[in-house]
Design a protein that fits this description.
Elements lengths: L2 H19 L4 E3 L4 H7 L4 E9 L4 E8 H12 L8 H21 L8 E2 L3 E2 L5 H5 L7 E6 L2 E9 L1
Helix pairs in contact: 1-4, 3-4
């Protein structure tokens, strides 16, 4: 795994979530809580975005529904009760688009990358979603007592 790309991913997560979504970000070293998501049957948004260029693969984002509502409210300047599911879907897709774009823009060959269109996947099981990337390529974030995960998979 390209260590520089993972460093850029962590920087992108912090920058995007803090600046665009007004969320404090703390990287969690122990991702054991991902097992809790499965055991507790936590409903998640699972978003993927492919990229092509000097390296190819995809980024993915796992966000619990309750956190997606908060992120959307912060991003759109709404109260959480005003947020609709379609707005949540659009917001989590845009969050991953911003994170992926930031990561690729930091690469020395940035102009050779093409970032796809983010899409909600049908897979909402965190175990299966996280198996798409090696554990060291998944960044777990804690924000205001909630968690989310961002991963990178290279083809």
């Amino acid at each position: 795994m390209d260590k520089q790309m993972m460093m850029n991913l962590k920087q992108a997560i912090s920058s995007v979530l803090e600046t665009m979504f007004f969320l404090p970000v703390q990287i969690v070293e122990d991702g054991g809580f991902l097992d809790n998501w499965s055991q507790q049957n936590i409903e998640l948004w699972h978003v993927k975005i492919r990229f092509r260029g000097p390296a190819e693969g995809f980024f993915f984002l796992l966000v619990p529904i309750n956190l997606a509502q908060e992120i959307t409210a912060n991003f759109l300047g709404l109260g959480e009760a005003e947020v609709e599911r379609s707005q949540e879907a659009d917001t989590v897709k845009e969050a991953l688009n911003m994170i992926g774009g930031y990561v690729l823009s930091q690469d020395a060959q940035a102009d050779q990358f093409q970032l796809g269109i983010p899409e909600i996947t049908a897979e909402k099981n965190p175990d299966l979603a996280c198996k798409q990337a090696a554990p060291e390529n998944i960044v777990v974030i804690e924000t205001d007592g909630n968690h989310l995960a961002v991963g990178l998979h290279l083809d």
